[in-house]
Specification:
The chain is α/β, with parallel strands linked by helices. Helices cover about 40% and strands about 15% of the residues. β3, α5 and β4 form a beta-alpha-beta unit. α3 runs parallel beside α11, α4 runs parallel beside α5 and α4 packs across α10. The protein starts with 18 loop residues before the first helix and ends with a helix.
Length: about 400
Amino acid sequence: MTAKTPAFPSRLPQVGTTIFTVMSALAAEHRAVNLGQGFPDFDCDPTLVDAVSAAMRQGQNQYPPMPGAAPLREAIASKIEALYDRQYNAATEITVTAGATQAILTAILCCVGPGDEVIVLEPCYDSYVPNIELTGAKVVPVPLTPGTFRPDFGKIAAALSPQTRAIIINSPHNPSGTVWSPAEMRQLEELLAPTDVLVISDEVYEHMVYAPLRHESVARYPGLAARAFIVSSFGKTYHVTGWKVGYVAAPAALTAEFRKVHQFNVFTVNTPMQYGLAAYMQDARPYLDLPAFYAAKRDLFRAGLEKTKFRLLPCEGTYFQCVSIADLAVPERDLPEADFCQWLTREVGVAAIPLSAFYGGGFDQKVIRFCFAKKDETLLAASERLARL
C-alpha cells in the first residue's frame, strides 16, 4: 500500500518561486553578469571577520539573551542617538533579529490579525504582502507615484479606515532608490496623528543616501517614532547579507509585544556574530563612509548606462538603479518587463529584475532594476555588454 500525503489548503496559494531566485538561476545558466539579486560580490572588511573569530575563540558560542547580546543592543542604541537624536533603551527597546526579513514578519505578526488592514506602498519588497496574508489581515495597496515613486498622501489618506492597523514604509526605497524628504515624513506624521495606526519602517538602506540628501529615519520624528517599529540590517550595511543579522528599535510597549513573537519564531540570533558586530561598531567610520563608497559605484554604473538608450531614473539612495526600457532601439523593448529581463539575461548577458515583480497585481511600466553593489570590474563588464543597446 502506497502512503498518501494528506492534502491541505495552502496558506499562500498565489506564491511561487521568487523572481530573484528565477533570475539568479537564469544568470548562472547563461553566465550572465548578475545585477539582479541585491547582494555584493565583494568581501566585507577583514576586521569584522576577525572580530567574529575573536568572539568565537573567547567562548561566545552558546545562546545569548533572547533580545540579543547586551553589548550589541547598547551599540545600536548609541548609533541611533548619535545619528537621529532619539534615545532608545537598549534593554527594553532594541531587539536583535535574524535579518530584516524576520524582523518585518515578526513586527506584523505581533500586532496584526484577522479583520485588520495593512497599507503597503507599491512597488514594495516582496515579503510584505505574504507576511500580511499569513495573519489573515487584508492588504491595502497604495501606489507610489509612477515615474518618481514619491508617496501620494491623498491616496494614503483615502486608504485609511477604522480597520487600518499599520502602514509599512520603506526609505531609502527598494526598488526605486527614492528617499523620503523631511516634508514627506512630517506629512505622514500629521496624517497619522489622530489615528492608532502603527508604522513599520523598513530602513535597511539607511546608510546609502547620497549627498546632498540625508536619511530621514522615523526616529527623527517623535509622532512617528512613538508608533513605529524601525527595522535595519547589518547585512546591507557591512556587506554580509549571508549573516542574516538585523535589529528592531521600538518603544517599550511595542517591543514587549514584538519579543513575545520573536522568542517563538527564532528565539535569538547567533552569538559570535553579535559580539563581533558590537566590537566592530565602536568605529563609526564604516557606516559613515558608506554613502561615498556606494555613490562612486552608482556614478560609475550610470556613466556606463549613459552610453545606451536606457533612460536613467534618479537614484537618491540604496544600491539599486532603475531604468526605463521604453526608448531602446530593439524590438524586445515591447515585451513585458519580466520577459525583457529574461531576454536581456540570455542574449545580452546581464541579469536585471522587472519592476512589475514588486507590485502585487503586476504593473508594467517598462522599468527594470539593476543592483550596483558589485566590484567595479563587474559593473564595467556589465556596462560593456549593455552598451550594445
